[in-house]
Amino acid sequence: MPTHLQIIALDKIAYEDDVDIVVLPGEEGQLGVLPRHARIVTLLEPGEVLTRKSGEETSLVISGGFAQIGPDSVTILSDAAEYAEDIDMDRAEVARRRAQERLTNRQAIPDLDMARVESALLRSLTRLRVAERVAARRRRQAPGGQPPRQEN
Ligand code: ATP
Fold it and tell me: Is residue 12 within 6 Å of ligand 1 at its C-beta?
């Protein structure tokens, strides 16, 4: 019995499929969800959503939100979500730098919305981290790639 996973973002349904397992970025670390999970609603951090279906892994980044988990379904609501492969590293780097500069110059910026800047910084860092992690994983899995290494 698979789990029906839906990832709903502000502007689109970012992902919808039946999967064997989904790993979520929970508040207390990675949360693996298998079929027949108890019903819960839980908060999600900005981070990676990893799915596995017939041995194939798919990785997405979410900006954080909520997951409604049930015995045969997981529904994620997150402002932003995109496939790790679709992450534009340059754009994320520009966003990171912009947020970092605002934080550094915060005394000089009247009415700076600190919560907004901090969440923009966290989103950009998350995109950079997940895109790099997925690229490294792909390299290791490629023929002639490095042998698997333990990940934290
Ligand atoms: P930016 O300042 O570059 O717009 P942001 O963190 O404010 O970054 P979001 O509000 O999180 O952007 O996302 C807006 C939309 O753009 C979403 O659909 C999200 O998936 C997409 N998006 C944002 N940054 C990237 C990126 N680096 N690569 C690919 N898609 C992105």
Answer: no
Q: Tell me: the pLDDT tens digits for 99-129? A: 999 999 999 999 999 999 999 999 999 999 9
The model carries a pTM of 0.91
| Cα distances (angstroms) measured from residue 15 to each of 58, 88, 138 | 10, 18, 20
The secondary structure of 111-151, three-state, reads CCCHHHHHHHHHHHHHHHHHHHHHHHHHHHHCCCCCCCCCC
Query: Using the 8-state DSSP alphabet, how is residue 34 labeled?
Result: -
Ligand 1: distance of its center to the CA of 70 in Å?
A: 29
The owner of tokens 């919560």 is 115
